[in-house]
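This entry is listed below:
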Amino acid sequence: MRKTLLLICLALTACVGHPADDEDIIDGGGSGSVTEGSAPSLLLDFTATWCVNCPRMASAVEEAARLRPGSVFPVSIHFRDDMATPEGEAVAADFGVQAYPSLIVNLASSGLITATSTDLILARMDATAGLRKGTCTLDLSLDGSKLVALVGVSEAGSYRLGAILLEDGVTAPQTGAGDDYIHDNILRKILSGSIAGEDLGALESGSSVRKEFSIDLNSPGHFRVVAYVTDGNLVQTVAAVTLP
């Protein structure tokens, strides 16, 4: 009877509103997993200030970024705390996130990660990168209050462009990490309207398309925009620009 009750309790801790269970957490150092010139990846980090294990996922993402410099683009999507947004919580619902922390790499919903493992993150980055189409380029620039994105593709197909406004350097209490925890990569607004991005239509091989997004900032802070190109299923490439 005690064993049965224990199993039931462990199952309940992985539900919405509770941090991921400690038994599902694997600490990985990423040793031996460095790949030169690895493809850029978008990491949706579903997190919350009340989540005791969320700082461990953030640390795993930071370690992945250290091992793959310039290739890791995290987006912290908060749930039911002071940094949560309706857009972010809608994204969590769309991907069926039920445990915190959780991580999705390159919008591949079948590969949701709940273990705080750098090695697992790197492995998922490599697996999704291997499924990409031909070379896809994304150049970002700022023109006043507008983000200008230039997308180029080497393989014909239908593509979409996503853009997310992020804020860094927000100090707020974090369960499991103290009162002066610094939160980075916070989703503030999905500029493209949805996480799936805006439709760029069917592009021919070797073609390019220009897209603009308005950026309306009414508060001081440290902001960036992360943009990414998808084929409707998987992220093909990612880029970022810091706002002045």
In short: The longest strand covers residues 157-168. Confidence is low (pLDDT under 50) at residues 1-37. The CA atoms of residues 63 and 118 lie 7 Å apart. The chain has two domains: 30-129, 136-242.
